[in-house]
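Issue: copy button drops trailing tokens. Both records pasted manually instead:
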Amino acid sequence: MKNVRKEAQKVNLLKPVSFPDSPEGDCFGKEYSSHDKDCSLCADIETCAIKYQEFLQKKKNQFEKEAYPLDMSDFEGVSMKKIEILIKKYQDSGQPASMAEFIELIASLAKTQDTLAVTEWIKRKLPLSDLYIKDGYIYAGKNSSN
């Protein structure tokens, strides 16, 4: 007896693969580690890794919507001259700005929450300005103790 041939399905290789969400309680695409024993024994390790990558991308996109990305600091909008004028006003009023206030000011101008990046920016820019740090406060003008 003759076998009936089925027509071969055409596969579009340019279309990205999409996986359905995993059922409740299944670890597929929710937890992935190439070093984990269960993952190394699983037959779906490659597809699970792709699904896990999609999961992490969704999580990253959600985080970036809620807060400004930490590695996307924009120090172009920070003017040291304007900061010097503001620090001088604080100093003239008798209440100099603290280092924490100074970091917060620059972070808000740079639209970042990355205090390490702000601190590094201050280390580079402070010697080039008329500002100096003394006893945890920022002062404008030349440091008389140097």
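Record 2 (pasted manually too):
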Amino acid sequence: MNQRKVWMSSPHRGGSRVSSSLQEETRRRVLAHATANYAGRFERIDVRFRGALCYVDAYVEPERPTKALLRLRGETKEDYYRQFRETPIHLCRLRYFSGRKLWSVAFYTYSHERYEPTLYASGEVYGTPEDAFDLAAIYLT
């Protein structure tokens, strides 16, 4: 039996390099959306790019530590705050496809410590950076 190979497109492989102008536009869009819809839930948002990928991280103000927690961790209050303020919360990774001007999304799972491909809340494979932020904002609650 002769089987023919069939080429299939994957929204979580490949992609197109993100130009510097699109990087700036995407960064502005994500930051504006985060500020308008999630103000007070983060200290700052970091949007960075590598090839076809866009990584979105958040930094939050940690809760006040108890004395018992500081003893358990063996650190001072200043060390505790410094560590948490400098540690990002990985929200999501976007993959850009220029021919369609679309983005796929992968959600960061802390249980596996990696990005896992996912669908947008609408059930679609492709969406906008703002929709991806809304999906990943669960980590900001």
